[in-house]
Amino acid sequence: MVAAACPGAGAACASFPNSLLLSRSPPPHAPSPASSMRRRLLLGIGTPAVAALAAAAPPAVLQDGAATMFVTAGAYALVRTFDVLTERRLVEKSLSRKIVHVLSGVLFMASWPLFSNSTQARYFAAVVPFLNSVRLLTYGLRLSTDEALVKSVTREGKPEELLRGPLYYVLVLLFTVLVFWRESPIGIVSLSMMSGGDGFADIVGRRYGSAKLPFNDKKSWIGSISMFISGFLLSAIMLFYFSSLGCIHVSWEEAFGKLALVALAATAVECIPVTDVVDDNISVPLATMLVAFLLFGSNTQ
């Protein structure tokens, strides 16, 4: 073990009998290996602190830490890209907001296989929505200012709006990754309906939704149909993605029918005129979780 951990240490260890290795203690004036390591980490002398920590960390922690940094950087780059496109008037503000809405959830889900199979992997992944929620709280409470972010992800360009839909969105991401993670179809389908289904419903409905629903003049027939189709397709694609990687098992003979029922339930909830009371970013994923749990249970069948 010592020789493997310390290259070149095998010969030195071989020069002492094993009994001596077990009983030998360093001279009183010599610092212990642990204290020497601590001094190096604190003073930055010899081996750099980051390299020393990396060498001592388990492989799963290194993988999860690297994945967290990569996904966090990607999430920031996604929002910042559409900030710039909105500022330069290359993308309409309403379209930019919904594209970010769709891509944030989809790409975050797609990144889950980058994390290890360890029990702590989900907590590393949860760092990404947690940091985004802190960011939204910071700007929403006007503790700091980011006008580009406000313009790209809010309807009216007011910082306070960050504390509603956008914050609810990242909190659902946080809840889903902690409770369901990639081993459960419930979280996968719920995020697919919230990000893809609800997102495309707004994009298509705003452009072509002249025929409104009789019980909700803020929603259109074409928007609701788009939500059902896009939510169903994205859910199927994401289930196929995770099943192909071995995260879940899918019995496709039954899965399509169940996905259609889940998409129908989510679409019905999105149509109900209660947006002023319950945000779609809360009602849609919660309804989806409930129906998916009743149909799928904890694993696809």
Report on the architecture of this protein.
The chain is 69% helix and 2% strand. It has 301 residues and is mostly helical. Strands 1-2 form a two-stranded antiparallel ribbon. A hairpin with a 2-residue loop joins strand 1 and strand 2. The chain is globular. Mean pLDDT is 81; it is low at 1-28.
* Adjacency order of strands in the biggest sheet: 1-2
N/C terminus separation? 46 Å
Count the beta strands.
2
Helix content: 55-70%
Q: Uncertain regions: pLDDT < 50 for 5+ in a row?
A: 1-28
| General form | globular
Specify Rg, calculated over alpha carbons.
25 Å
Largest sheet: 2 strands, antiparallel
Tell me the layout of helices and strands:
Blueprint: H1 2-5, H2 9-14, H3 18-23, H4 33-43, H5 49-56, H6 59-87, H7 93-110, H8 121-140, H9 147-153, H10 165-179, H11 185-208, E1 212-213, E2 216-220, H12 221-244, H13 252-271, H14 280-296
Antiparallel strand pairs: 1-2
In short:
This protein is mostly helical and 301 residues long. 69% of the residues lie in helices and 2% in strands.
Which tags fit this structure?
301 residues; mainly alpha; globular
